[in-house]
Amino acid sequence: MATSKPQRSPAEIEDIILRKIFYVTLAESTDADPRVVYLEMTAAEILSEGKELLLSRDLMERVLIDRLSGNFSAAEPPFPYLLGCYRRAHDESKKIQSMKDKNLRSEMEIVTRQAKKLAVSYCRIHLANPDLFGNSDKPSGGLDNRVKKRNVSPVLPLIFAEVGSGSLDMFGGSSSGVQAPPGFLDEFFKDSDFDSLDPILKELYEDLRSTVINVSVLGDFQPPLRALKYLVSLPVGAKSLVSHEWWVPRGPYMNGRAMELTSILGPFFHISALPDNTLFKSQPDVGQQCFSEASERRPADLLSSFSTIKNFMNILYSGLHDVLMILLKSTDTRECVLQFLAEVINANASRAHIQVDPVSCASSGMFVNLSAVMLRLCEPFLDPNLTKRDKIDPKYAFCGQRLKLSDLTALHASSEEVSAWIDKDNTTNGAGREDGNESRLLQSKEATSSSRNVSGQNAKSTTKFTFISECFFMTARVLNLGLLKALSDFKHLAQDISRGEDNLATLKAMRDQAPSPQLELDISRMEKELELYSQEKLCHEAQILRDGDFMQRALSFYRLVVVWLVGLVGGFKMPLPSTCPMEFSCMPEHFVEDAMELLIFASRIPKALDGVLLDDFMNFIIMFMASPEHIRNPYLRAKMVEVLNCWMPRSSGSSATSTLFEGHQLSLEYLVRNLLKLYVDIEFTGSHTQFYDKFNIRHNIAELLEYLWQVPSHRNAWRRIAKEEEKGVYLNFLNFLVNDSIYLLDESLNKILEIKQIEADMSNTAEWEQRPAQERQERTRLFHSQENIVRIDMKLANEDVTMLAFTSEEITAPFLLPEMVYLFYT
């Protein structure tokens, strides 16, 4: 008869479980597993105390400390060992569920829970004090030398595995091999006080920042981005991030570029498809990888590259937006986010200059990314009816202390006028109370507003601004320094490419006439430059122009800008008040200029304006383009005409824009009148180049007037103006039209004589070949230059003469002498 197996006592079962969890033994054994450590000294102490050599929950922490403090050969380093303890405790807790004795099962569950809690607690202690146990963790084999030097936190691979999707981690190894046991990270981060976790979290943020430095959008940026979002979603993680000394770096030499490189979020915002200066170049090289020798690539390949870059950039935008949103929702961290954004904007104010210093200013990629993220933050108040625009306080522009807006050129007021007005009206009010029916998100954002001490020249007051005001003005500044600056760079790249291609064609023509080694070198250099220009241009196109949602959000924001600005002068009604309100007069000029620039670019992108409500833009342009009393800069008002030119049906190719001219009430009443007035006003711009600038501006006005003459309703308005203003604006208009025509025709005829002389010289082949090569090159360049000038001047003169033919129909013009008419038509 078989004998029954002896029953183990609860103490023995507890001992077995704890030995399996902690890989220790109190009795010398021949265990084959080298990881099991014999705690000889601990066993001797327990025996001296008259206790059995059995592990128990009372001895658990004592045994763990002795195991971590001892110097045992073949023992695991502290963190992997503690992580293993947690994993084994988790496994044992599952096995315990099969115990039939409920009381025993309950006791053993307490033991495994305590073991897990102890493992997590000592993980925190070890990471906060790596040298405490004298056996610091060594980086895993997958780390490269750079990462080894940084001694990356061992928690980071666990977070990557937690938030990842099984892809390669940032250290070159598979994240699946370093997964945390179930529940470990939750217990590690959520059940502890701030002081114990803060140094661990700060190290993690530094590691995350390091993993994405100089990483382009084609690099593996997604695991760090997801890890960043995971950490800030923890209340303790968000608090630790904004209290980090690198959240807003300080220092006497801190500038925009240094902030981009050293702040925690800066390297994340640097991830981009746009090329950066060679000192800060990101890898993989997007231009080289996606757009090298683009002219020889299949269109399908280019479209695929555009789509890939767009998708990756939107993943980045969404991730960064989520991070900022989490921080903005909390009243404990919101102010720090606004401070970070303001510091970045102020430190990079010089990005608005024509020439940007890449060493002192952050990259275009960072500011384009920041533009996209800020536009997403604005979405709650960009509804079609713009119902929350009244919550934007105009006093933020001159009373807010967060952004340095006082140095910006205002729409009309001088800096002295602004100071005097603030000094006079030093009593400032709050930006408005929150509506109780608003969404909880907007309530949470607006409930805690930034409080700043605002000083006039002789008075001080405290002003609170809603989050909507903060976000509105910050977004306008970021777009000016980011998206609009990038669009300007794109335009200049296109011009550089066009000039480069012309120069290359000239060089090749010269090589055919007189080949030389220097010419070959010049041609080779020019071809390389054009290749780099082409790559950079396509990178801009991929990240910005091909992203329809990005452009739509920007247009929606600038629609809010113009509607809000019009509200400052009493709304969409004419005529405008004779005295410009100071709230409008003090607004930064670039608010309007950026809106016009964006409309011009969007008008040249197929389908970019589809679904955009253009009526508000049209009303704004008609109201202000001929009003120097409200917008002082004549070039800015001239840019409004350029927008209208893009919207002419024959230019836009869209039937949607025709209604803006032919069925728009304000357009029918004031468009022709204001165009004629601007035509006259642009004679004197105050610039030293005003004489030459006026021709291009009047060219745009002439094209628009020629189109409007074909529209019966506008032609009738024109005839009415001609009769009403026969001795006023209309007479001045005709006078300037005649003067321009005479000058352009005269200049063209003189240059034609110069061209004919050069042609005669070149036709005499024998004499031409005897001239020095340099002289021939200079004469050839002059020939092509004069040709272009004559072509442009004759086109402008022809437009003026054509317009003169139909504009003088409705008015007696005694100053048009027969000789002058003969000159025009011959």
From TrEMBL:
Coiled coil ranges: 516-543
Q: Which Pfam families match?
A: Ufd2P_core (PF10408)
Polar residues bias: start-end ranges? 440-457
User: Does the keyword field hold Transferase?
Assistant: yes
Q: Sorted alphabetically, which keywords does the UniProt record give? A: Coiled coil, Nucleus, Transferase, Ubl conjugation pathway
Give a GO molecular function annotation for the protein: ubiquitin-ubiquitin ligase activity
Primary localization class, coarse: nucleus
InterPro entries tied to this protein: Ub_conjug_fac_E4_core (IPR019474), UBE4 (IPR045132)
The record, for PANTHER family, names:
UBIQUITIN CONJUGATION FACTOR E4 B, UBIQUITINATION FACTOR E4
What is the protein's name according to its record? Putative ubiquitin conjugation factor E4
Q: Which organism is it from?
A: Noccaea caerulescens (Alpine penny-cress)
